[in-house]
Amino acid sequence: DGTFTHDYIGGRKYNFLFDHPIWFRNHLEKHMDDLSLLTVDRNYATFAQEVYHIGARFFPPAGYELALEKTKKQYDISFLGTYGGNIGNYLEELLQKEKKEQRLLYYWIKRMRKNLDETPEKALREVMQICGNQMSSEEYLELFEKNRDLIYAMAHSYRRKVIQELLKAGLEVHVFGTSWERCPLKKYLNLIIHNEVIGDASLEVYAQSRISLNVMTWHKDAFTERIANAMLQKSVVVSDTSKYLQENFTDGEDILLFNLRDYRRLPKRVKTLLKNPERMKDIAENGYRRAKEYHTWDKRAEQLLQVIEEDSERKYKELWDNSR
What we know:
Blueprint: E1 13-17, H1 25-29, E2 35-39, H2 42-52, E3 55-58, E4 75-79, H3 87-94, H4 99-114, H5 120-130, H6 137-146, H7 149-168, E5 173-176, E6 191-194, H8 200-207, E7 209-214, H9 225-232, E8 236-240, H10 243-248, E9 256-258, H11 266-274, H12 277-294, H13 297-323
Parallel strand pairs: 1-2, 2-3, 4-5, 4-7, 5-6, 7-8, 8-9
């Protein structure tokens, strides 16, 4: 009859979104009562509030420490992400669309490449204005949702560029999973492909890595579980930057940050770091201490209980005010 089973359960429901809210449009437009969203990116919380009118808050993921004895650092650089193709694959699909939509999406891609710190939703709105497209909010969301794969296409394209630059510089990069078997970067002999790892096995890889590479999935104001887990295994995290990382970590002290537009400079910084084991150890230790203090799942559990308490108090106050 259109009602949700969850509506028969008393209390607020919390939905942890690890991706952009546009991926969950159907779920969020027709949602259960008392729904709150927890997002990995502060921009995602804002988008959900403005577009879906749902209470949302930034609630970064975390990690946990695997109890390991002294683990040998056998990998210089590891990357525990998939190979997802590149923007070229998306451009081929783009040629199948209507001319008007082709033009709009072409300029959207161009805008995102030029403004790498900008959110995809803002870039799309800006391009629509430039192209003179007068769309309703519903039409805008339809267009965004239909072409949401572009977010991943952009992220995977830059992921490939970053890793290729490291490989071209002669650095050995260890990747995991079958997706890399179809990657053009296989031509580089210093791309070492391993079997897929999940769960505790992935934590063991972080513990065995001098450097753990992270490339955001086009999150612009976020923190990821990959960063927390790597730090908690005392691996130096090298990541493209985000507003949250800039505010909460210090480049060269507890993390190594780079801007996507400057990815060609990354190999030199990584080589310099690998030649200085003591500095690497200091950065790894600083990152570990920071993650241990602020970014474990135990900490997040405490914070979630606090969130639930605050929301309950707010709800009771609203009920009281409305009954007076």
